[in-house]
């Protein structure tokens, strides 16, 4: 396993969730470049440092013994990785304060370190929130791999922070250093909203939501086929996003007991607000989590899932397979997993291997809705 070695620390970091024979490392050249650059600028224990979108905790763990560190991001999996990596290096958990992206870090901060996220709307929201939370003389430095660093990221830094200087590329990584200048407060354009025609509901979507401007085509293919009138079942919406599957299912099944889980804090924030708007005080368990890792075994009768096919910039079906395993463990005997997926991903073969059966419920030219039943 590669070691992250910088002037601040020598770290053996892990990703979360880990894969067997893990093919990916928990840091990249942008983390190394940023830490090496920071060492040249100087840092002391009194500095208040805000780290945004730290992936698996490489920056926060490196700096935990050198400054007062607050880490903020939208990934619960990233938060779990940070906790694991702090423990691996015998760093007290209280040395890094974690703030979910659904909340606003307090400040004032002397230094802000940013890993440019995949969703630039999240970056824009984070930069808007920095207004009034930077100390005098504060520095803001963003980093990313060149292939994942669009020009618009620098434009956002320029608009919301101040003049930007781009570094030379080192190991295909680049830094963007912004000099804060006084700016008037900006009203955030987030969350956004859109309306569905059937059912007629409006959905709130915070900045880091997938398909923030309208219902994604996979979910659109799934919604008309959600089962109705099944009675008082215990139902899980796994990877709930803005909560649309669980919310619509609950409309057609007024006696059902719903659990909605997502690893994105902004998704959970959106789902809670949308549930409240549609269902008022009807009880539901809506939480951030590592899928159903903490869900009791055999505690659900039905699971609904539109599985993701990426983690940060990495594309693959590892997370989907892990979610299928979690759903299987959470289902009672006779319980069902309903999913939607792109035809080419071959989820039917994976479900048949795991459950011993798989039935196609519906199909469009691009998507299939599948059902698998736990038989033992």
Explain the layout of strands and helices.
Blueprint: E1 4-5, E2 10-11, H1 29-41, E3 48-52, H2 58-63, E4 68-73, H3 76-88, E5 96-100, E6 109-115, H4 120-129, E7 134-145, H5 151-160, E8 164-166, E9 173-178, E10 192-195, E11 202-205, H6 217-222, E12 234-238, H7 244-252, E13 257-262, H8 265-279, E14 285-288, E15 300-305, E16 310-311, E17 314-315, H9 318-330, E18 331-342, H10 347-355, E19 359-363, E20 367-373
Parallel strand pairs: 3-4, 3-6, 4-5, 6-7, 12-13, 12-15, 13-14, 15-18
Antiparallel strand pairs: 1-2, 7-9, 8-9, 10-11, 16-17, 18-20, 19-20
Main location: cytoplasm
Pfam families: MTS, RLMG_N
Keywords: Cytoplasm, Methyltransferase, rRNA processing, S-adenosyl-L-methionine, Transferase
Annotation keywords:
20 strands, 376 residues, Rossmann fold, 2 domains, 7-stranded mixed β-sheet, 28% helix, alpha/beta
Question: How does this model look, in words?
Answer:
This protein has helices at residues 29-41, 58-63, 76-88, 120-129, 151-160, 217-222, 244-252, 265-279, 318-330, 347-355; strands spanning 4-5, 10-11, 48-52, 68-73, 96-100, 109-115, 134-145, 164-166, 173-178, 192-195, 202-205, 234-238, 257-262, 285-288, 300-305, 310-311, 314-315, 331-342, 359-363, 367-373. The protein is globular. It has a 7-stranded mixed β-sheet with strand order 5-4-3-6-7-9-8, with helices on both faces. Helices cover 28% and strands 28% of the residues. It folds into 2 domains: 4-178, Vaccinia Virus protein VP39 (Rossmann fold, 3-Layer(aba) Sandwich); 192-373, Vaccinia Virus protein VP39 (Rossmann fold). The two termini are 39 Å apart. It is of the alpha/beta class and 376 residues long.
